[in-house]
Amino acid sequence: MGPIFQSGTESAAAQHGGGYALRYITLAALAFLGAMTGAASAEPPVLTVYTYDSFVSEWGPGPAIKADFEKECACRLDFVAVEDGVALLNRLRLEGSTSKADIILGLDTSLTAEAAATGLFAPHGLPGSSVKLPMTWADPLFMPFDFGYFAVVYDSTKVSHPPRSLKELVEGDPAEKILIEDPRTSTPGLGLLLWVRQVYGDGAADAWRKLKGRVLTVTKGWSEAYGLFTKGEAPMVLSYTTSPAYHIAVENETRYAAAGFSEGHYMQIEVAGMTASSRQPELARRFLAFMVSPAFQQHIPTTNWMYPVIGVALPEAFGQLVQPSKPLLFAPETAAANRKSWVEEWLDAMSR
Amino acid sequence: MAGLWPGAAALAALLLLIGGAFVALLSSTGELDPAGLLADRYLRHVVLFTLGQAGASTLLSVAAALPVARALARRSAFPGRTMLLRLFGLPLVMPTLVAILGLATVFGETGWLNRLGQAAAMQPLHFLYGLSGILIAHVFFNLPLAVRLLLPAWQSVPTETWRLAAQLGMRSRHLFRVIEWPLLRQVLPGIAGVIFMLCFTSFAVVLTLGGGPRAATLEVAIYQALRLDFDIARAVELSLMQVALCGLVLVLLRAWRREVPLSASFDRPAARPDLGPWLGRAGDGAAILGAAVFIGLPLAAVVSAAVAGSPGTVLIEERLWRAALRSIAVAGGAAAVAMALGIGILSAQRELRARRGRPRAAAMLEVSGSLIMVVPPLVLGVGLFVLLSRVADVLALGLGLVVAVNAVMGLPYVLRIVGPSMERTVGRYERLCLGLGIRGWNRLRLVEWPASRPAVGLAAALVAALAAGDLGAIALFGTEDNETLALLLYRLIAAYRMEAAAVVAGVLLALSLGLFVVIERGVGRRGQA
After folding, report:
1. CA-nearest residue of chain A to B130?
2. Is residue A317 part of a domain?
3. Nearest-CA neighbor of A211 among A352, A351, A350?
4. Buried b / exposed e along B67-84 (16+ C-beta atoms within 10 A)
5. Are A225 and A166 in contact (CB under 8 A)?
6. Residue A318 included in any domain
7. Residues A133, A274: one domain?
8. Which residues of A touch B308 (CB under 8 A)?
């Protein structure tokens, strides 16, 4: 009988008193099967982390983090990757408390209010002071693992006077086009929606009506927009302040730059949390602590192209990036409560 | 053939898969409120736009395909014809992102066309982002498909008919009116139906090339309901609406269809009497060349980006070839399952129509088989996930599920392509078989298989290539080590590696072409359907 089954039985008994007998029989059967194959006792415990696809790809932070964590935890780390943060939340909603996930990694603050409302997350127990963000962090369920700022990235060989504010972007020359993403299907698209809302408030619809003339097209996802941008279809694209760092660090290409906006930049804070149904709560907590340690954080800048949440050395290319004057962010509850009506407002303004 | 049981089995499998998915979704949601949908102003606009753009795209694709297919039917032997037909299989199977970037390279703001214009001191043209862009993309995908689906119709014209026409001294346009048009009327509704459904459910292309949220399809609304709002009831309502609307269009198209009683004939190539005049030659040449250029340029754009993306360093990556192997496995599996399902349904349908005098039941069977195409993949995927996660470990099923979803999505092509061929066989050989007492295995081996081979080859090749380029299904179920070529491509782009992604796109295109050649030749033998 391996440690997996013991801890599983305990937590099952504690949380689901009613299903105890059934669960006990199932576990006993599983343990029997395990004993038959002789594998259960030799297997290390498994921590299952649900995340988004680009995190686990060869160019994402996943592979290095898996190797580093496995070195110190005497466990196996399994990633399960779905399309993106929204898909991650939906997957958990579908699976509910039967989910195999111990950790959900890759939601952002526009999703955390809804994620918390599912009741499927357990407190992480880490002090908010273990991370250094532009604001204080006090969420008991979710811990940030990186953050970034949305920005208009432009091709400096084509744009001689980049916009210096959101206002200049909205009111600028309609012949100079920008590619943006749809807030219904894309995270940066939703980011821009919230950004405009934060800066313009109830005037957001008017701003969108003005900006509409400058928009070459609204793409399904970031990949389409950025692909068309690098093909030269439009001189500007909605992306992140860190995007130019990739081109500088990997391609030695300095033509792409992010425009700094005087009103400030809307933030994306990516977070992880542990599930209440986890059968490895100790291991899950250990992973979250590892997540905000240098061993994990050092991989973030050059794989996820985002800022780390603790003070680790940044690569040289990050020194050339625009530093947002003011971070903008809605409280998760505000973003969740208003998203639907703000998306409708956007649809209305953009489809006239 | 073997009566009704293969069809019944295939239909049962489908019902289990799709019905199960819907029931599972409905059981995890509350009440449906279809009336609420009608009150949504934006949604009403989206429905009208979806119908309009799908109708226009279908009309344009078919109208443009007719002269091209006729030209190809008339000029049955010119150098490069076989290759051209195979290239025609490619646009449809390209991942949409690759197709969009390819089209932008040719028709975009800074595309080849505009650069050519610039060299000639012309104003740049802006037409790729807007309704015109959607239409260009949809014609790019569907014109070649329509040509491939139309071509076999000409081969069903009996030799005697051409001979008679020659004796009567019929000219080209008479031939078209008296012989070709009635035949086309038999197949056009089905082909238009497939294309309509493809355009109706088009998603990323409409969103990205449409210029803004005014251009959106019902599929976008379904995606939003199921993903962003996690409103399963609404997603199910919208999906049912989509199935109902497309079903209505299919039924209307069928009503326009006319059956042509075919006389017995032998498959000898027939020389039609209107191949001589230079005007016809020039016209055919222009149609073929025009289509080849329109289809070929975006493909060339993809290839040129692949060559420019330093293929040397990418092609030696082991993971690329592992991903390619997985794509081939998915492709082969999906093609095999789709063929089994499709031929089952078709033989039951033929049995109902030809032997038991139940044409309406036969039509129902075919329409329901085709409608699978408009069940949104996301809804099917989430439904299957809910269904299966109650009984099995969905992750462990991995690529098997991807194969199943792709097979189901490819089924309408099988019905469209193999169906007419099986109908013709019954028309030609039924009496002969009855007279000689050929049945069962012998009939399959001696009559059905040789006659349907080219069609089966084309259908299998198309389904395989579609599955190879699929991303929808694989992105749904979550992945551990299931990286296919399409997934690798998207991962590269998400990691800013546009050049490497361009190389993978080239490999994917080459793989699709390879699958086409191997399957069409291996299965179809004669190499053209």
Report:
1. A217
2. no
3. A350
4. bbbbbbbbbbeeeeeeeb
5. no
6. no
7. yes
8. none
Same domain for A46 and A139? yes
- The C-alpha atoms of residue A336 and residue B31 are separated, in whole angstroms, by 24
Q: Where are the beta strands (DSSP E) in B27-97?
A: none
Based on the fold, state whether residues A124 and A56 are members of the same structural domain.
yes
Reported ipTM: 0.87
pLDDT tens digits along B13-33? 887 888 888 888 877 766 677
Same domain, A130 and A277: yes
Spatial CB neighbours of A127, under 8 Å, sequence gap ≥ 6:
none
Instruction: Give tens-digit pLDDT for A212-265.
Output: 999 999 999 999 999 999 999 999 999 999 999 999 998 999 999 999 999 999
Distance from CA of B208 to the nearest CA of A (A): 4
Dihedral angle sign, alpha carbons of residues B155, B160, B161, B165:
positive
In the chain, the amino acid numbered B421 is S
- CATH number of the domain within which A334 lies: 3.40.190.10
- pTM of the predicted model, to two decimals? 0.87
Provide the shortest C-alpha distance from residue A73 to chain B (in Å).
21
Is residue A315 situated within a structural domain? no
Q: Which residue range forms the structural domain that includes residue A31?
A: 1-41
Give the count of domains, chain A: 3
Residue B494, chain A, CB below 8 Å: the answer is yes
| Cα angle: A192, vertex A202, A347; to 5 degrees | 55
Is the domain of A125 the same as that of A85? yes
Answer yes or no: are the C-beta atoms of A181 and A350 closer than 8 Å. Answer: no
Alpha carbon B460 to chain centroid, angstroms: 11
Do A125 and A272 lie in a common domain? yes
Is A239 contained in some domain?
Answer: yes
Both tokens assigned to B7: 């069809």
What DSSP string runs through A82-141?
ESSHHHHHHHHHHHGGG---SEEEEEETTTHHHHHHTT-EE-----GGGS--SS----SS
